[in-house]
Amino acid sequence: MEATKKIRVLQTIRQGKIGGGESHVLDLVRYLDKSLFEPVVLSFTDGPMITSLSQMGVPAHVIHTERAFDIGVWKKVKQFLREQRMDIVHVHGTRANTNVLWAARSLGLPVIYTIHGWSFHDSLPTWNRKARILAEKFITQRTRLNITVSDSNHQTGVKEFGRFKSTVVKNGVNLDKFNSNGIYPDIKAAYGIPAHHLVIGYIVRITEQKDPLGMLRAYAKVCANFPDITLLMIGEGDLKAEAVGLAKELGITDRVVFDNFRQDVPAVLHAVDIYCLPSLWEGFPIGVLEAMAMSKAVVASDVDGTREAVEHEVTGLLVPPKNETALANALKRLIQDKTLRTQLQENAGKCVKANFDVRDMTHKIETVYQQVLAPL
Q1: Backbone phi and psi for residue 337, each to the nearest 5 degrees, phi listed first
Q2: Matching CATH topology for 7-172+357-373 and 187-355?
Q3: Average pLDDT of 235-246?
Q4: What class is the 187-355 domain?
């Protein structure tokens, strides 16, 4: 009997650094049914994700560009797709899509586009937002199938484009890796944080989207009343230097620990008591799910995808975005009310285990692949 040919699926993403989309790709290729699928990854920059894929034995390739719509790489991508004999191309994020779509379509390959949060948002200048809406409308109409990671992102697509179809598959978290009962090194001691301090964790890209400056200003209001807390800011990004400068300006440098991205996020989360994500917009935040899986109390901004991950007063506290007073008050409330903090931590852990297991997410995506390749 002839063995069934495996479906070769290209996962492509704009960069090899570790962030939400990159974690999603790593987990997806880890849990795909290898008896049916053969994953290959293409990134447009090198980074830790590529190393992790090599360790997993998943072929990973880099065609370098840091630009969207970089016509200079399109022919290279087409040659790569032809050589790799791909059956499906699964693009993650706008930049990966704009640099792969032409090549895949010219070879007649089906393209699946996962939107990890839209590239347009309200804080952009009007002309830029309109240009991005037109670009997203153009590419979503030329893919075989779109996946949105939240109901909110799906509804935004319908509202902005009129004609928009997508399958909603919410992100999941790797529960083997993010295990609240695991044994972890003492991160507090490693950073010199006093053992009795409550730790607020901010573990994200330090960019405008994640409002790091608002985070620091809110935290400064909290510091004035509570001496036994430390803010752990883990991440890199274009606002990192400004954030470090602001902490100095606010006089809270001795109450904030800055560090670059780490590969051992579960160990870092284990040291955290309250996880904070004051984003201005989100697709469906994997960082929040990871913190919840580790049974952490969450304070996050009440924006699109986040409100589908966090239930206010049940699995975390939601506050309006760009509202430093509300953010400070929510943090103060959790610092003072240990009973509430414990309740939120327990509920968060149960919620993720019941609803956001990465294995369930992967099964749904496998079904999408099979539907796309099914004879019409």
Answers
A1: -105, 90
A2: yes
A3: 96
A4: alpha beta
